[in-house]
Write a structure and sequence with these properties.
- The protein is mainly α and 309 residues long.
- The protein has a single domain, classed as Na+/H+ antiporter like fold (Up-down Bundle).
- Helices cover 80% and strands 0% of the residues.
- It contains 15 helices and no strands.
- Helix 1 packs antiparallel against helix 6 and helix 2 crosses helix 14.
- The longest helix is centred in the middle third of the chain and has 27 residues.
- The radius of gyration is 19 Å and the shape is globular.
- The two termini are 14 Å apart.
- The mean pLDDT is 87.
Length: 309
Amino acid sequence: MSSVVNVILPIFGLILIGYLCRRTGRLGETAASELNRFVVWLCLPALLFRATATATWAEIWHPQFLAVVAIGTLTVFVATLIYRLRGSRHLADASIDGLGAAYANTGYVGIPLSLLVLGEAGLEPALIATLFVACVLFAIAVICIEVGLQAERSPSHAVLKVARALARNPLVVSPLLGALGALSGQDLPHALDAFLRLLGDATTPCALVSLGLFLAQKQSGSTQGTLGLVGLKLFVHPLITWVLAYQVFSLPPLWAQSALLMSALPTGTGPFMLAEFYRREAAVVSRTVLLSTLGSLVTLSLCLYLIQG
């Protein structure tokens, strides 16, 4: 329990700082939006580019573990997307909801928790899960949102418009450019690597402060469906992953434990960043991030008990 608390508490601290800064007027009404744009246009692209540019094939090619992470995550995302669409939810909003149910906070919570619980050996599977969530799942959600925002009647025009929007989207372009850099076999110049690291390291704290700023504002949108997304993230996602890791693929103990731990993580700030960036209603995803982080104190502790028992 103490391991979980030590990792989770800084998250609440950063959210609280943002909340208090807005409530006391230290930061203005547009601070949440502007800080989030700083993250989306600068920090997160730098993080994604560096993550893919410095990754090696040997580090990420663990097909069975990748299959467990991918199937479990995408099952939750697609199921949530379909359910929300059947409830007459707009595709863009349903995509953000799906991301809220499937987007695990692997970077800020998962990696340090893995190191605490599994030691240095837990770093590699945590990095693989982080790359999948931050690059692949994020890109799929962005594509779905862009498709939903296009109102072209002609399919060819719609496809062209989506392609243009994606080509200008830093969250899609940056990991692709990073992957091309990795394929070239060239190491990043030291100065560029340091520059990208500085920007990338600002992603999580800025996103969490932005979330706190948003929560301090008067919420006009409905938060209906929040508890459902929290339940999917904290209970359904780990259950699916447990079946896949232990019953279907029979992963080695360390990799199975890491897969379960990664799936039980709370929702990261990615869905909130996209909701703010695309000017969609962010009340549901902001509450999902907050409540899932709080609820993960219980669910992660249960997973740790199962792993260490």
